[in-house]
């Protein structure tokens, strides 16, 4: 990934490419997350790669979300989940987007994800994830 100025961390599994999760980082225009979601098809393991902008206030960004339903999906109360919506920590806000993705589908957050084999994803993003893990 080009122009990364700061890594904020990884959400989900420590190996997000293989097991799902995301890398939260900054580059020139703001905070972003690359989120990996694996699946299988007749040809083997595949990965969908979503690019999600992490806004300063997730609730204000995602006005279409039924927050009570999302919170229930991830085992929280609505107030607990939305309390992280404008947290100073980009990683905390990224976890709110992840919760929406679990509930509504990540394609609601990025309607044009990249789809590739696990091997292609490791080749393209492996060094990026390794750098974020340091």
Structural description of this entry:
The chain has 134 residues and is an alpha+beta fold. The protein has one domain. The chain has helices at residues 16-19, 58-61, 67-73, 78-83, 90-104, 118-133; strands at residues 4-12, 21-27, 30-41, 44-53, 114-117. Strands 1-2-3-4-5 form a five-stranded antiparallel beta sheet, with helices on both faces. Helix 3 crosses helix 5 (90-104). It starts with a strand and ends with a helix.
Q: Which keywords apply here?
A:
134 residues, alpha+beta, globular
Number of strands: 5
Biggest beta sheet summary: 5 strands, antiparallel
Tell me the β content.
25-35%
- Strands of the biggest beta sheet: in what spatial order? 1-2-3-4-5
Q: How many separate helices? A: 6
Q: Please give the radius of gyration in angstroms.
A: 15 Å
Oligomer: single chain
The topology string of helices and strands comes to EHEEEHHHHEH
Number of domains: 1
What is the 3D form? globular
**Helical percentage:** 25-40%
pLDDT averaged over residues: 95
Question: Which segments are poorly predicted (pLDDT under 50) over 5 or more consecutive residues?
Answer: none
Give me the secondary-structure topology.
Blueprint: E1 4-12, H1 16-19, E2 21-27, E3 30-41, E4 44-53, H2 58-61, H3 67-73, H4 78-83, H5 90-104, E5 114-117, H6 118-133
Antiparallel strand pairs: 1-2, 2-3, 3-4, 4-5
């Amino acid at each position: 990934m080009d122009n990364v100025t700061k890594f904020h961390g990884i959400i989900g599994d420590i190996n997000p490419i293989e097991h799902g999760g995301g890398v939260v980082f900054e580059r020139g225009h703001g905070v972003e997350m690359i989120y990996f979601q694996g699946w299988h098809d007749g040809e083997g393991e595949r990965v969908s790669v979503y690019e999600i902008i992490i806004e300063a206030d997730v609730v204000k960004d995602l006005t279409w979300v039924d927050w009570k339903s999302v919170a229930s999906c991830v085992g929280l109360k609505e107030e607990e989940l939305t309390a992280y919506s404008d947290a100073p920590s980009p990683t905390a806000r990224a976890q709110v987007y992840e919760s929406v993705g679990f509930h509504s589908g990540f394609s609601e957050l990025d309607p044009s994800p990249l789809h590739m084999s696990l091997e292609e994803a490791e080749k393209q993003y492996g060094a990026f994830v390794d750098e974020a893990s340091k």
